[in-house]
Amino acid sequence: MSCTSRERVVTALRHKEPDRVPIGFGGLHDSIHLFGHRKLKEYLGLSGEDIIQDPFQQIVFPIPELMEKFQADALPVYANPGAGFEMRYYDEGEFRKYGDEWGTVYRQPKKGGIWFDFESHVWQGKTAEEIRNWKLPDPLDPVRFKDVRAKAKHILDTTDKAIVAYAPTGGVYEHTYWLRSMEDAFMDMAGDLPTLELITERIVQWMELFWDRYMEELGDLIQVVQIGDDLGGQDGPLFSPEIYRRYFKPREKRVIETIKKKTDAKIYFHSCGAVREFIPDLIDIGVDVLNPVQVGAARMGSDLLKKDFGDAISFWGGGADPVKVMSKGSTRDVREEVKRRIGDLAPGGGFVFASIHNIQADVPPENVIAFFEAALEYGQYA
Predict the structure, then answer these.
(1) Is the peptide bond before 292 cis (omega within 30 degrees of 0)?
(2) At what angle do helices 193-218 and 249-260 cross, to 10 degrees?
(3) Which of 166, 219, 224, 255 could form a disulfide with 263 if both were Cys (CB 3.0 to 4.6 A apart)?
(4) Which residue in 66, 56, 8 sits closest to 36, CA to CA?
């Protein structure tokens, strides 16, 4: 029996088998880079505007024709920036730059640049007293929520897609270094834990206020809510798991509890890297879905993840190794990899097929097409 996209996603995230494995394509972590989007459109003879979804990664909202071709099952919704903030790029020397509403500035080399990177951070070098008194953007600014419900309702009424409400910021840990800089954030972990606690508390209080109001608008309309924190590198945790469990885990739990008070949507947690060590913690705080399932990282094999955690958490991603296969492999390599990952992760439900993070600029269009065609072929449930 065939399902609507919404039914397909909901069924899978309840750890049951729908008609086929749902496909995630077009959200913050499972879309495609601007350059890849342009190449894919050209290859397929398609037109349409490149609308940036995330300036930091240069990720687009794919054109509707691609969403339809690849049978994507979910669509994203976002809150708005606060009043008075205008997203704009500007040139300065050899760089193209922009700033966010928190005050962090990003830059991209004008020659050969693919993504943006950090340039400056408003709390870098600041004392605890300065951080304590710093005025943050208003999490309850009415402009953030203007027309958000109407947009979600339009998706609900005019499509059969599942709706994913994406976070407006990084997670509690990520936001420490977005505001503080990676260097200062790690120095706080190593030698100034009171400042680390102050920063994480300011961030989580902002998030609690925002998410409470956001879910007031959307909680009854959506099927998935995204939060996250990049906790892993290629070989293991980025910092001490003890630090995570003391400072970040309880605050992530507070965010999840705030969200779940006003919605039955599943909690989708994005964390790149080798995060196997943290999966029991994520399950403990109420995470329902792990993304992007970086199968090439240490101890992140898809077969063992499914065996050890598949009853307790769903997986969104894990479709094919992004470097060895998607960027450098043949279409045959892509198809074989997709077949393998679906075979590992799909049985019993609990799996949304998607790229491992966004499809990058150097992925050949033929491989993108093979990726989704293989998912539709091998993702059928008997």
Answers:
(1) yes
(2) 10
(3) 219
(4) 66
CA distance 92 to 34: 22
- Residue 342: pLDDT band (50, 70, 90) is very high
What residue ranges do the domains of the chain occupy?
5-84+122-378
DSSP 276: G
3-state helix/strand/coil string of 83-128: CCCCCCCEEECCEEEEECCCCCEEEEECCCCCCCEEEECCCCCCCH
Q: Could you tell me how many residues make up the chain?
A: 382
Domain formed by 5-84+122-378, architecture: Alpha-Beta Barrel (3.20)
- Model confidence at 138: pLDDT above 90: yes
> Which strands form 32-33's sheet, in the order they lie side by side?
32-33, 59-61, 51-54
Q: How far apart are CA 3 and CA 160, in angstroms?
A: 10
Distance CA 221, CA 70 (A): 24
CA distance 349 to 314: 8
From the list 363, 373, 368, 365, the residue with the least C-alpha distance to 342 is 373
Q: Which of 337, 270, 268 is nearest to 345 (CA)?
A: 337
Condensed to tens digits (0 to 9), the pLDDT of residues 4-46 reads 999 999 999 999 999 999 999 999 999 999 999 999 999 999 9
Bridge partner list, 20: 380
- C-alpha–C-alpha distance, residues 18 and 351, integer Å: 10
Structure tokens at 86: 């205008």
Six token digits for residue 335: 């198809």
Helices vs. strands in the chain: H and E counts, helices first: 14, 14
pLDDT at 1 over 90: no
Query: Which residue has 């094999």 as its token pair?
Result: 301
Burial (CB count within 10 angstroms: exposed 0-12, middle 13-18, buried 19+), residue 112: exposed
Enter the tokens of residue 292.
């992007």
pLDDT reported for residue 382 = 79
Among all chains, which residue has been given the structure tokens 């928190």? 102
